[in-house]
Specification:
Largest sheet: 6 strands, antiparallel
Strand content: 15-25%
Helix content: 25-40%
Order of helices and strands: HEEHEEEEH
Number of strands: 6
Structural class: alpha+beta
Strand order of the largest sheet: 2-1-3-4-5-6
Radius of gyration: 16 Å
Number of helices: 3
Shape: globular
Oligomer: single chain
């Protein structure tokens, strides 16, 4: 009972209170978030990623989330570092998208552009340029619609729209 109380009330309260500080980067400095260029740092032989046209999610029951679901997106490039923490409909949409992807592919050597932590999973890697997401030692190719959805969320959150 105490563990359930802690998980349901204390952790979300802590996350909300910890988000009250100054943002890591001012929103005025970010017009649109371009994907980071990681082509120079990968040592993988030439290969290509293809965007699937079929459904790449696992079957699941519809899940309800509260508006306090917190998501943190970071990019640790020296040229354009980024840290966004947000909740609300964009957090719910990104959490739901990442949570129910069918991570079954082997991980390639391309580096993720963004790291994402949600309340339901920590350490998602996303590369919008190469159209993939990875989690827990597996990877999934993202559809063009999923890439656009993620990019739109990042753009909205960085500009405060």
């Amino acid at each position: 009972m105490m563990k359930k109380f802690f998980l349901l009330y204390c952790i979300p309260a802590f996350l909300l209170l910890s988000a009250c500080g100054e943002p890591a980067q001012s929103k005025e400095n970010i017009a649109k978030i371009p994907p980071a260029d990681t082509s120079a740092v990968t040592s993988a032989p030439q290969h290509s990623h293809t965007q699937p046209t079929e459904d790449n999610t696992i079957a699941h029951e519809a899940t309800g989330y509260c508006g306090n679901t917190v998501t943190t997106v970071t990019r640790k490039t020296p040229e354009e570092p980024l840290e966004l923490t947000f909740w609300g409909s964009d957090s719910v949409a990104l959490t739901d998208l990442l949570r129910y992807l069918d991570y079954h592919e082997d991980i390639c050597r391309c580096l993720p552009e963004y790291n994402v932590d949600t309340e339901f999973g920590m350490g998602y890697g996303i590369n919008l340029t190469e159209s993939y997401a990875r989690y827990d030692g597996k990877q999934v190719s993202l559809t063009a619609e999923q890439v656009q959805t993620i990019q739109n969320i990042l753009n909205r959150q960085s500009t405060g729209e």
